[in-house]
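Q: What residues go here?
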């Protein structure tokens, strides 16, 4: 299988939306109190365009036979100005998503390498991300890649 990783283009919008549908459904099924089914595409074209056109954001896609089958989305974050917090920048990895039928072909690893390269090109030395606890496969993937736990979000339904 010939897999190409490249920057997303606005013509990828509909393919990206198909992947977002899979991703969003996984979240909705596991946390219906937080997520709902979108009546239209889960991401507006303007949202995708903004990522593509912002030098502090990146959206990379994996392409197989001219079809987008996966993406990685990230952006540069800066710490707030607060007396006990060090001033720093990091890349916030908002997600890597691979269509179900293309999983286990190392596409996620290829996209992560692209994000790492992009981060280094921006002179940023840290990537952070959030993983929902139900997403065991993502948690294992990132752990295998060297990511460590930083914090934990907890909740209490009343």
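A:
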């Amino acid at each position: 299988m010939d897999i190409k990783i490249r920057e997303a283009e606005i013509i990828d919008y509909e393919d990206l939306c198909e992947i977002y549908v899979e991703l969003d459904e996984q979240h909705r099924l596991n946390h219906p109190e937080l997520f709902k089914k979108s009546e239209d595409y889960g991401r507006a074209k303007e949202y995708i365009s903004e990522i593509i056109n912002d030098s502090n954001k990146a959206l990379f896609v994996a392409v197989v036979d001219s079809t987008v089958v996966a993406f990685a989305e990230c952006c540069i974050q800066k710490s707030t100005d607060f007396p006990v917090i060090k001033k720093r920048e990091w890349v916030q990895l908002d997600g890597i998503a691979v269509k179900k039928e293309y999983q286990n072909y190392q596409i996620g690893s290829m996209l992560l390498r692209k994000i790492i390269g992009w981060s280094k090109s921006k002179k940023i030395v840290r990537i952070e991300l959030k993983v929902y606890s139900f997403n065991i496969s993502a948690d294992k993937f990132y752990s295998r890649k060297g990511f460590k736990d930083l914090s934990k979000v907890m909740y209490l339904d009343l």
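A: Context that may help when evaluating the design: The beta strands are 3-7, 57-64, 67-78, 89-98, 127-129. The chain has four helices and five strands.
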